[in-house]
Amino acid sequence: MNYSEKVMDHFANPRNVGELADANGVGEVGNPKCGDIMKMYLKIEEGIIKEVKFKTFGCGAAIATSSMATELIKGKSIEDALKVSNKAVMEALDGLPPVKVHCSVLAEQAIKAAISDYYLKNGIDPIPIVGRIEGCSGENAACYKELN
Ligand code: FES
Q: How far is the CA of 87 from the centre of ligand 1 (A)?
């Protein structure tokens, strides 16, 4: 399989790996077909993503796309981060082989799940803003939680 240099770089040297103890938005998503899981931690202050970290248990493309996704959303407003699509992540990595496109979808969903969790923690229904997230799972399954 042919991977771009950027994919190989982000796979070998992933940026922003780890957890954020003081994250106020945490999202976890998984792909049931390959079993890969991505967890995204955000620290949001006044609508801006100040810090972001991720942990991915998955394939090389999943690691590279989550690494690039964190780079793309760091310092951005929530609104701009929500516009970071899997296509944007793929373009920033100079492309992915077709069988690996779903890995970039996981990265987009992880961002959305973490932002949804942030909204829920602030008493805001995320569904009208973020939409429903496929594959959202884990303890912080913001997409499955309902506001009471
Ligand atoms: Fe499933 Fe990459 S093979 S995320």
A: 16
- Per-residue pLDDT of 75-93, as tens digits, reads 999 999 999 999 999 999 9
**Could you give the residue numbers annotated as active site?**
34, 103
Cβ contact 110:66 at 8 Å: yes
Q: Select from 145, 116, 138 the least CA-distant residue to 129.
A: 116
Q: What is the model's pTM?
A: 0.91
Total domains in the fold of the chain: 1
pLDDT digits (tens, 9 = 90+) for 118-135: 999 999 988 899 988 876
Whether residue 91 is contained in a domain is answered as yes
Token digits of residue 59: 């394939």
Q: Is the CB of 62 under 6 A from ligand 1?
A: yes
Is position 109 within any domain?
Answer: yes
Does the residue 140 lie in any domain? no
CA-nearest residue for atom 4, ligand 1, is: 103
